[in-house]
Write a structure and sequence with these properties.
Chain lengths: 441, 441
């Protein structure tokens, strides 16, 4: 079957070399011991590397003809196994389709395989950058972010990808007998947002841009985690301070931040902040209302090779930094209730003291400031993990379960408003796109 | 007394010509019939027009020496009588001090007398503009805005002037025997924000800037006011849509909008919107979720001479547009409770149907989206006016009373967090700055 498929697709770069195919059949699902057990042996049979949309159309048509599943991937930085083929078939690696078609003030049109860091590198000289990016900006692609992410650094100002205006257009190839090319604009583009490539193959994106402020990275140390939370929350609520990140992190997490250890006092929580340099003075003025805090680090944010911008200690990089020292941890994805945010954070931090280590990332959801968090969890058994998730939910904290491969079970608060199921029924009638990920199909 | 003062101040431009002095002793207090009765005969004895800070220091010292009150003014576009001298003395007209000292990315340093429109004109070529401005942008000065305003067009994104980060620095001359010059940064600058010049004489400001997006003006007509409110609210909550104004206006107010009457269908409410051109498509996508709305006007926002940008129909220009046709109206300043915003607006609109005509301006306060409003009111008696104000307050709507000359009575939700009274006690011990306006002094 695969041989015939590859014959049909002659001329398109591909490989069936087992180690290469296995490598491209993986993502960072191993952060979850549960997913690790489920997914570590899954693999595609071949990897196709389209060079342009015409290649993607040929691949789609051939896969429909031969009824071969397609799992699309960018750099595979996701944590939900979204790039892991559950039912073999092929992986389509989009990283070669990385051209910027055009940039205009406030908008860029780009191939799905463009790395986020390389996208900003091209738009910054004109004064623009992506509104938000995951902590994996250095390696992740824009297509993978839209298809498998939800928000990140920048979401404290702009909200997540699902907020109106945060995805301009997604061009997708459908999986019908004769594949079509659709341009989904604005709300329509939500059909492919966080759908793990189950609803169409993204061949281009128009992404809205933000003014590229010169960012300053700061660490503020606080003896008490809740003081860091209060300060980070006050910053998130300060619409007059231009910011990109406000992330309080509880001790002992910073113990694992080896390269910035001298800026993380033993036993103390830290607040990691990115503010525009023109807002630095205003931030410091705000900080005077939180006198328990001490600035231990202040430097222009630097993403050049060999440097570690502070956002690489936040979002799910926090888990990664801990995993480097201790493979016994995993994480949750929490969204705390906006109406009783600080109380809820304090409550959950006390409930699992020592077992669940909190860090928050303040974000906007539906126009309201709240905190998401990726608390690091000392893993014992899946049963205990399920208990902890249930306890969070019982106490009003939404958990998007990162220990499941399906969109529905993992979505939680990351669910988008689009009717992705109907969209899939129309455009992938044979269910060949990343099968097994959309449970309701 | 004034003669000796003017002798001391020889060389500084001044006038005692009665008609000129009377003219410079007024602002737009006449929007309020109550204030109009109280203030129409108040006047200073002379007007001084300092050319620079040295002049201001000489004036301050001489006024302290002779115990002569000083009322500072810019263009006098305020509505609270803040520029009206209650106890004679001199008016200090700051409009000649209008130089831009420097601009940097995100910040400008400017004299208090600079007109807002002329400030934007200088910063826009570099890609920047003021974060917010009142509807009187064409005539108002930056010093007057900080000393007597609270927010405006832009506050739907940036919040008001009192939000941390929205005033960078205020340089003030004190009213001590030997006047001092203070540079009040960030939170400290709140000592002069909305203090009507009672706490010091502003001689320079550092104002944070926003990226100057190319703005598009739109009118969306809705048969039902509450549909316009719901749509405007949804826009205000959409962090991914770059916007500067979202203002639903109930019929019959638009009947008075003569120059845009063809875009205001009879009997319908309108929603006036400013969005960045790169967010226009996203706004129209959002609008499809509010199908009762019809776009009747769409044009790049144009502030050139002879053009009327749509913001000149919002905030307190709404009242002005009605007053042009009908001198029997006045207005309130309302802040609706964020937690039950739409219900509260509907409740108050129904309670005074025909007597109080609502329009809202969505804003951010403390990081939260809510709506302020300057409902236009058919005036009968002061007693009825007080009844209507009381009814609003009983129903949870904060009213900043625009029918009083004192800071305390008029502050309401516009009160800033600074201890302006202590500041005044230290820096104006003889109470010579705009006496009568700070009641608690």
């Amino acid at each position: 079957m695969i041989d015939r498929l590859l014959d049909d697709l002659a001329g398109i770069p591909s490989t069936t070399v087992r180690t290469l195919v296995r490598q491209k059949s993986r993502d960072f699902f191993w952060y979850s011991p549960v997913l690790n057990a489920q997914l570590r042996d899954k693999t595609a049979e071949a990897v196709l590397m389209p060079r342009d949309e015409a290649d993607v159309i040929r691949i789609a048509a051939a896969c429909v003809r031969h009824r071969v599943p397609i799992t699309a991937r960018g750099s595979g930085t996701g944590n939900y196994g979204q790039a892991v083929p559950l039912h073999g078939g092929i992986v389509i690696d989009m990283t070669a389709m990385d051209a910027i078609e055009w940039q205009r003030p406030g908008m860029v049109r780009v191939g799905p395989g463009r790395k986020l860091i390389d996208l900003d590198r091209e738009t910054r000289p004109q004064g623009w950058e992506l509104r938000m990016h995951p902590s994996t900006k250095r390696t992740a692609t824009i297509g993978g972010f839209v298809a498998g992410g939800s928000g990140g650094i920048g979401s404290v100002t702009w909200g997540g990808l699902r907020e109106p205006g945060n995805v301009g257009m997604a061009r997708v190839v459908t999986m019908e007998e004769t594949p079509r090319v659709l341009e989904l604009r604005d709300a329509d583009a939500q059909a492919v947002n966080h759908a793990y490539g189950t609803t169409g193959l993204i061949t281009a994106l128009e992404m809205p841009l933000a003014p590229a402020w010169p960012w300053v990275d700061l660490i503020v140390a606080f003896p008490d985690f809740m003081d860091a939370v209060r300060c980070g929350h006050a910053l998130a609520l300060s619409d007059g301070i231009v910011k990109k990140l406000s992330a309080p992190i509880a001790w002992p997490i910073p113990e694992s931040f080896l390269t910035i250890q001298q800026h993380c006092p033993a036993g103390q929580a830290i607040l990691i902040v990115m503010v525009a340099d023109s807002s630095l003075s205003a931030f410091k003025s705000l900080l005077r209302q939180h006198p328990a805090g001490t600035i231990t680090y202040e430097k222009p944010s630097d993403e050049t090779q060999g440097e570690t911008p502070l956002y690489e200690y936040t979002w799910n990089h926090t888990t990664l930094q801990m995993l480097k020292r201790d493979r016994g941890v995993t994480y949750l994805q929490a969204l705390y209730p906006a109406a009783r945010l600080q109380d809820s954070v304090a409550e959950m931090a006390a409930m699992f003291d020592g077992e669940v280590m909190p860090h928050l990332e303040f974000i906007r959801v539906g126009g309201q400031v709240t905190a998401s968090g990726l608390p690091v969890l000392r893993y014992t058994t899946e049963e205990r993990l399920r208990e902890i998730i249930a306890a969070h939910r019982e106490h009003g904290v939404s958990i998007a379960d990162p220990h499941t491969v399906t969109l529905e079970d993992g979505a939680g608060h990351k669910r988008v408003d689009a009717d992705q199921l109907s969209f899939k029924r129309m455009h992938d009638p044979h269910g060949l796109l990343n099968p097994g990920k959309m449970r309701s199909f």
